[in-house]
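## retry 2 of 3
previous attempt timed out at serialization; input unchanged, resubmitting
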Amino acid sequence: MTVKVHFDGKVLVPEEPIDLPLNCTFEVQVKPLEIVQPDKPLLKLVELARKFPVTDAPADGAAQHDHYLYGAPKRP
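## retry succeeded, writing output
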């Protein structure tokens, strides 16, 4: 019998219902049908950010972001 399954990170889950006896042990061979790369948007963002290095950022940029972004007076 051939059964298509997916791995949810913990267990193999059948793609469709299968008729197997309960409480039996089975031997399973696993062969990937396709290799799916997980979508990792944060890694893509990091790769994109590395293409635009910031070399002249102010040292107090985080503390004074309203000043640098919106022109507000600097906070003490």
